[in-house]
Design a protein that fits this description.
Number of helices: 14
Order of helices and strands: HHEHHEHEHEHEHEHEEHHHEEHEEEH
Distance between the termini: 53 Å
Number of strands: 13
Bound molecules: pyridoxal-5'-phosphate
Structural class: alpha/beta
Radius of gyration: 21 Å
Number of domains: 2
Shape: globular
Helix content: 40-55%
Length: 372
């Protein structure tokens, strides 16, 4: 018998939003709308699709192992040196490399309860001690996180805006926080949803900071519409980026992903449309939630987290929506058992979702006589 290390035997792997084909198979439903994984309802960037078809005949070649042209394109876009950027197969891959490169077995990882499950899984996968601080009314409690630092703390993970709550912390809050953190502790600032938040006047855009102990993580999976290709990057001090290159797998992101990412980064028209549609869809949702009495957290991202009275209600609500062909994300595994997340959609998807939500919500409310 092969002995499985305890931390792997006990590991709960990452569980993604339910794929459309899986639900279709399970329930025999034909009309399905998925608003579970914060994907772009407009599809991929058209410029990205175009270069993919142009590069398809190069699939027999290994790609540039350091993603030279992509790294340069990102550096130009965010005003950094190429030596301050490393790319990977999605930001999830980068998060894994951060644990590999910067932590030893006993180093404590500090973060919040109710944040991105991918970070928890990456930390648990390596058997590192994980300390989670309670959210403060669904917001990161930066003061409590700073107070929880000990001599064992090695990495602090923050997501801004946070997934699954959609809440964000301000520039002032972040500035105060970084002042309190000793420079031998790495701060990982995950900005997966920054495109949706960066127009907020008090949003602390992480790439504007030049700190020796800060890594900013971004992805092209959300606003750029390239989740299926897997492209993410880290930006920060050269001394940190250098270490990530040591542990990174050589040929990621793959060749088509690199080409598509370069094109997508230049697709301003698509990005503008994306942000616009997101605003419209979320506004329609907000109006409906207010009208029917569903609670939610104010969002700076491309999704809302609805909050229900009990975990049971949230679970059954999510199941009820699934049965009607609407895939949402029940976020108990993120540490919020009363929450269900929904991302913005096309106008048609938004309407379908809200019709289903209204029906399921009122049916359940009646059944359980829950007064919310
Ligand atoms: C906060 C946050 N970070 C990272 C990721 C991972 O994104 P990807 O691996 O697709 O780049 C997600 C995806 O949901 C996320 O919400």
């Amino acid at each position: 018998m092969i002995r499985i290390p305890k931390h792997i035997a006990q590991l709960t792997p990452y569980k993604a939003g339910k794929p459309i084909d899986e639900l279709a198979r399970e329930k025999g439903i034909t009309k399905i709308v998925k608003l579970a994984s914060n994907e772009n309802p407009l599809g991929p960037s058209p410029k990205a699709m175009d270069v993919i078809s142009k590069n398809i005949n190069q699939l027999h070649r290994y790609t540039n192992p350091a993603a030279f042209r992509l790294v340069n394109a990102i550096a130009k876009k965010i005003n950094k040196l190429p030596s301050q950027i490393v790319t990977g197969s999605g930001s999830d891959s980068i998060l894994q490399y951060i644990v590999t490169a910067f932590s030893d077995i006993d180093d404590e990882m500090l973060t919040s309860e109710g944040t991105f499950i991918g970070w928890y899984v990456n930390v648990n996968k390596y058997g590192r001690p994980l300390k989670k601080i309670q959210l403060n009314n669904y917001y990161f409690n930066l003061d409590a996180i700073a107070d929880a630092v000990t001599e064992k703390t090695k990495i602090i993970y923050l997501a801004n805006p946070n997934n699954p709550t959609g809440s964000y912390f301000t520039k002032q809050q972040f500035d105060e926080f970084v002042k309190k953190i000793p420079n031998n502790i790495l701060i990982v600032l995950d900005e997966a949803y920054t495109v949706y938040a960066e127009s907020l006047p008090d949003y602390p855009n992480g790439v504007n900071y030049d700190l020796g102990n800060l890594l900013v993580i971004r992805t092209l999976s959300k606003a750029y519409g390239l989740a299926g290709l897997r492209i993410g990057y880290a930006a920060g001090a050269q001394e940190l980026i250098k270490e990530l290159y040591k542990v990174k797998l050589p040929f990621e992101p793959n060749m088509l992903a690199q080409e598509a990412a370069i094109a997508a980064l230049d697709d301003d028209e698509f990005l503008t449309k994306t942000v616009e549609l997101n605003k419209v869809s979320l506004n329609i949702m907000k109006t409906k939630f207010d009208q029917i009495g569903i609670q939610y957290v104010p969002t700076a991202a491309n999704f809302f987290m609805m909050i229900f009275h009990t975990a049971e209600f949230a679970f059954l609500f999510n199941e009820g929506c699934l049965n009607r062909g609407l895939i949402l994300r029940y976020v108990d595994t993120f540490g919020i058992p009363e929450g269900v997340r929904i991302n913005s959609g096309t106008l048609e998807e938004t309407k379908f979702a809200l019709d289903v939500i209204e029906d399921v919500y009122f049916q359940l409310k009646k059944k359980y006589e829950v007064s919310i």
